[in-house]
């Protein structure tokens, strides 16, 4: 299996990984997976329930198992959960088995996108924007560490973001070294 057969999307919650992932899968004729949706489908409960019963550590164990299984497949697009990169095992599986795309958004933009979403347990706090800032400070170095391509989500829409991404992926597939692709 070639590393270029799989595309993995990483980034904070609300960055657009699932939406962009579905578009990439359709464009390239790949199967699409969302690690959070896979966990929900296998457990029969929503992520907040898993957090409530098993805590974040229980959820992360489930996430690691699902990502190990999915990164062993070929010809897929995978949208990961925002915290998947906290696991060194996940980072290694993502880095060695596919092209990693970091959808980078500022905490302020991501707060706008997620502020009414009750399915994000980590944001059910007094100050969700401050929590996003904290998560960004903690996770951004991990996203950058494994990213082959970085795309700023900014205020651009999904179509603008995917156009940029298609261009970068086409260059990558034409043989441009991956080290030239990160911002």
Span between N and C termini?
27 Å
Number of domains: 1
Structural class: alpha/beta
Q: Looking at the structure, what is the overall shape? A: globular
Describe what this molecule looks like in 3D.
- The chain has 183 residues and is α/β, with parallel strands linked by helices.
- It has a single domain (3-180), classed as Rossmann fold.
- Helices cover 54% and strands 12% of the residues.
- It is built from seven helices and five strands.
- The chain has a five-stranded parallel beta sheet, sandwiched between helices.
- It starts with 6 loop residues before the first strand and ends in a 10-residue tail after the last helix.
- Mean pLDDT is 87; it is low at 178-183.
List keywords for this structure.
183 residues; alpha/beta; Rossmann fold; five-stranded parallel sheet; 7 helices; 12% strand
What's the SSE blueprint?
Layout (H helix, E strand, L loop, with lengths): L6 E4 L6 H12 L2 E4 H9 L3 H24 L5 E4 L8 H10 L1 E6 L2 H8 L13 H19 L2 E4 L5 H16 L10
Helix pairs in contact: 1-7, 2-3, 5-6
Summarize the structure in short.
The protein has 183 residues and is α/β, with parallel strands linked by helices. The protein has helices at residues 17-28, 35-43, 47-70, 88-97, 107-114, 128-146, 158-173, and strands at 7-10, 31-34, 76-79, 99-104, 149-152.
């Amino acid at each position: 299996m070639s590393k270029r057969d799989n595309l993995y999307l990483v980034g904070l919650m609300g960055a657009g990984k699932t939406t962009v992932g579905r578009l990439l899968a359709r464009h390239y004729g790949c199967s699409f997976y969302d690690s959070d949706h896979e966990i929900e489908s296998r457990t029969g409960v929503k992520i907040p329930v898993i957090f409530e019963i098993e805590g974040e550590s229980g959820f992360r164990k489930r996430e690691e198992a699902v990502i190990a299984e999915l990164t062993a497949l070929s010809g897929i697009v995978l949208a990961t959960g925002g915290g998947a990169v906290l696991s060194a095992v996940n980072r290694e599986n993502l880095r060695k088995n596919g092209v990693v795309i970091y959808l980078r958004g500022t905490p302020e933009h991501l707060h706008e996108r997620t502020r009414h979403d009750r399915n994000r347990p980590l944001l059910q706090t007094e100050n969700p924007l401050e929590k996003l800032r904290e998560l960004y400070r903690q996770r951004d170095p991990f996203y950058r560490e494994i990213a082959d391509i970085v795309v700023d989500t900014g205020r651009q829409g999904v179509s603008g973001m995917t156009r940029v991404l298609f261009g970068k992926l086409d260059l990558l597939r034409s043989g441009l070294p991956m080290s030239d692709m990160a911002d």
